[in-house]
Amino acid sequence: MKKFIGIRIASALTGIGLGLASVLGVSPALAEYPDKPVTLVIPYKAGGSTETMARVFSVALGNALGQKVIVKTKPGGGGAIGATEVSNAAPDGYTLLFAASSSLLWPPLTQDVEYDIDSFAYVGKITDYQQAIVAKADAPFDTLEELIEHARTHPLNYADQSALSRMFIDFIGTEEGVDWTGIPTKGGGEMVPFLLGGKIDFAWSGGIHNRYGDKMKVLASMNSGRLLASKDVPSISETYNVSMPSQAVIAVPAGTPADVIAKLEAAMETASKDSDFVDLVTNKLQFPVAFLGSDALTKDIATTVDGLNLVLEKTK
Hints:
Elements: H1 2-23, E1 38-42, H2 49-65, E2 69-73, H3 80-87, E3 95-100, H4 102-110, E4 120-128, E5 132-136, H5 144-151, E6 157-160, H6 163-176, E7 181-184, H7 187-196, E8 202-205, E9 216-221, H8 237-240, E10 247-253, H9 258-271, H10 275-285, H11 294-314
Parallel strand pairs: 1-2, 1-3, 6-7, 6-8
Antiparallel strand pairs: 3-10, 4-10, 5-8, 5-9
Helix pairs in contact: 2-9, 2-10
């Protein structure tokens, strides 16, 4: 009986303490983030460069956070299905999205999806996809300018891999007053034999050209900056002041607390220096390790969106 009374008294005192804390504006101590495993959603099929990067990065990120990071693939809709799931998740830092920025920006501008550009907060960038306009090594043009001049007197075909890449290639044609014909191809796996076999004259590449350095040449970077393996080749941003979304990012649902984003950002920066991750990105994928924090990335994304809107307007 005495034990029971003691428990009741302790419970009452605890309630009084919590009530006083509330009156005085002092919050009871909360568990420090993260106090449970974090889920990292990959909106693509297993085996691609993004999913491969994410699995290696998740280990380093978990070590930096002090919690396990669980990778979950959610493919479909060009990344839109996984992005939708994360946009609807609780904004508490326990559900992250690892994706190409194009999956967060392109669908809201051109499709009927359940999220928009403001549905996410950007934690950081770890690399840039090495997007380029490429041609066969023995093509009769070595630069984008020479390609354009060649197109003025020769009918040219290109690999039409996606609505986004097609829009940018057609934008260049519109700006320069030249026409070329898109030949539908299923990703880089089909583009490569089409290009090397002479069925097309040039193509957009998301980075697969890095595996064919002696058989392909880069005519232009489609990123906002020059490419890691082609630093002497200009970016289209230098000529047209636009670029394709190239950032590989981690994003969280809008409304995630700033202190949680800050902790994730710091962990991302630490993880980006992990030796296994650096080896994968630089030596195997031949991508740059290019960490960018939340504020800088948010500004970079805004510039990218401005470019997308301009290209959409010019190619309607």
